[in-house]
Description:
- 26% of the residues lie in helices and 45% in strands.
- It contains three helices and eight strands, in the order E-H-E-E-E-E-H-E-E-H-E.
- Strands 1, 2, 3, 4, 5, 6, 7 and 8 form an eight-stranded antiparallel beta sheet that branches.
Amino acid sequence: MIRDLTSETCIELLRTTCIGRLAYIAHDVPYAIPITYYYYQPNNSIISYSLEGHKIISMRNKNTVSLQVDDIETVNRWKSVLVHGEFEELTGSNAKKLLNEFSKGVKEIINSKEEKKVQFIHEFSRKLGVKDASPIVYQIKILEITGKERLG
Length: 152
């Protein structure tokens, strides 16, 4: 049986997971790529970062994006959440603050699931280790959340 998830269950999945697939449009072609993210409850948004590249340039040009997050136990038992939102690049002290929230939040999620201690953000993403490159911090302002689950 497949059924709709409540808003609360959708948020719970976003809150307890840190890997999803970001979908965006570049040159009228859809792309979907895995990202590390953090659900930031105070402003109901998705926080992430990246180096300058195809994804960032594309989202600057067309800011409508989606994020899909799944919890798959078996082919007959899963949950899936789809977020529709708008990309917004962050700068200055706000970007620094939210990158710190991202780092702390993702570490907590990984620590709770993997029984190992993550000490630094570069242990789960190499992007910050690139010399002479600053991360671009962004948020996805959530406009809509939907979800489905299959129960056996």
